[in-house]
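User: Hi! I have a protein structure encoded as tokens and I'd like to know what sequence might fold into it. I'm fairly new to this, so please keep things simple.
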């Protein structure tokens, strides 16, 4: 039986670029074959339960602007109604996946036993709904940043009892993800960092976080969870400094604690911007180390200094991001999760559908542009030409040599190289042919 929340909104269909229907796909055709595979299988879209259904439209200066029939979100009857509405939206959009935090699905009950009971109750309910739906769980995670107990961190907390509560919480969420057939489990350390070094033992906290993650990996294998374990970089907000600052920092952390073969990265466009990077940079860093797992697709407002989590609308940026994903071999078990929320003035159910339609279209346009660049081969050819000198035997031998031998050769052959153009503008012009 319909909840009535989306009454009057029909399932979204692909109508092509010429359509003037505001709730139609113009560029995302899930069945379109690109590089030998259906578009849906490449992009693997996911809906974020937290921003789409749990977020209430507040900001740092004002409270709720959304009036939803499942408000207040403090009881299980409303949690079930929220799940009913979620699956109605999944059907309207025909999306293959959703993602969740524990507190998105059920209210925080104040103690672990009740949290566990209500999480099991709601995930049983969601499992029943999944049995009648094509939409699956891309990943689950635990919210260990909102409640006051997490104010000084979770795994990095100076109080060992908070560490214990965090460990129990992650176990419960990993169990629930496994039960729902999730393909990944994500750990985002929202407050794993510090506000001031005056009261912070950084070495101790990093060791605690490393041990915590190792225990998660051990438990994954114990229960036979075949999904990926992912960590999600973010430099700041809410903490002044977070230990998972960016992709490179996370990779160094994973290597330090011997987890590089067990854990990959879930990368977000908005977090990349906060770290002073482009999204393509973060993707390239992760891909270069074989640690690109999945992405959160959104954007930040470049006039704001915080994580605004807006739906993507920049095709060139999206194309360059998917170019890195394709070069890395695609998502595998990962996907494109819309960690994006409506603006607080966009209060209607139709706004929620329109936002996802627009985001999916932008991603489709960007992906097809990236695929066209890969198939054309222009950027790859330019790279090969630029580094061609390293293909020679003498250049390769130099990397196995020593400074003295190289110096002797420079003197002997009177090596004095002239600068060579990087041709950046030509390459940017090349990209613009496709976007």
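Assistant: Happy to help. Inverse folding works backwards from shape to sequence: for each of the 435 positions I chose a residue that suits the local structure. Here it is:
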């Amino acid at each position: 039986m319909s909840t009535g929340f989306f009454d009057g909104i029909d399932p979204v269909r692909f109508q092509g670029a010429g359509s003037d229907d505001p709730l139609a796909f113009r560029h995302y055709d899930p069945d379109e074959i690109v590089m030998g595979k259906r578009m849906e299988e490449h992009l693997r879209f996911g809906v974020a339960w937290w921003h789409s259904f749990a977020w209430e439209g507040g900001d740092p200066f004002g409270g709720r602007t959304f009036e939803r029939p499942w408000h207040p979100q403090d009881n299980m009857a409303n949690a079930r109604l929220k799940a009913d509405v979620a699956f109605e939206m999944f059907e309207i959009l025909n999306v293959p996946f959703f993602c969740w935090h524990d507190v998105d699905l059920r209210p925080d009950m104040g103690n672990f036993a009740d949290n566990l009971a209500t999480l099991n109750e709601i995930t049983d309910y969601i499992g029943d709904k999944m049995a009648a739906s094509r939409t699956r769980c891309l990943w689950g995670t635990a919210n260990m940043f909102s409640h006051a107990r997490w104010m000084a961190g979770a795994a990095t907390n100076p109080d060992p009892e908070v560490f214990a509560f965090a460990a129990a919480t992650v176990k419960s969420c990993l169990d629930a993800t496994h039960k729902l057939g999730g393909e990944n489990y994500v750990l985002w350390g929202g407050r794993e960092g510090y506000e001031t070094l005056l009261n912070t033992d950084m070495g101790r906290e990093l060791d605690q976080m490393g041990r915590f993650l190792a225990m998660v990996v051990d438990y994954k294998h114990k229960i036979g969870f075949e999904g990926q374990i992912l960590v999600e970089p973010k430099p700041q907000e809410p903490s002044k400094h977070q230990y998972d600052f960016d992709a490179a920092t996370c990779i160094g952390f994973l290597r330090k604690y011997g987890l590089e073969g067990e854990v990959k990265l879930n990368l977000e466009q908005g977090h990349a911007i906060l770290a002073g990077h482009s999204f393509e940079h973060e993707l390239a860093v992760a891909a270069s180390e074989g640690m690109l797992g999945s992405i959160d697709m959104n954007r930040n407002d470049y006039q704001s200094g915080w994580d605004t989590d807006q739906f993507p609308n920049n095709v060139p940026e999206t194309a360059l991001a998917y170019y890195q994903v394709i070069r890395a071999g695609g998502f595998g078990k990962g996907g494109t999760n819309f960690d994006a929320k409506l603006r607080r003035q966009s209060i209607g159910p139709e706004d929620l559908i329109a936002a996802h339609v627009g985001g999916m279209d932008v991603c489709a346009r960007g992906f097809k542009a990236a695929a066209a660049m890969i198939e054309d081969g222009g950027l790859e050819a330019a790279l090969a030409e630029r580094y061609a000198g390293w293909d020679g035997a003498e250049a390769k031998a130099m990397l196995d040599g020593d400074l003295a031998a190289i110096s002797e050769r420079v003197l002997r052959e009177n090596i004095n190289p002239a600068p060579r153009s990087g041709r950046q503008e030509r390459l940017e012009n090349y990209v613009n042919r496709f976007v």
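A useful reference point when you look it over: The chain has a mean pLDDT of 97. Feel free to ask if any position seems puzzling.
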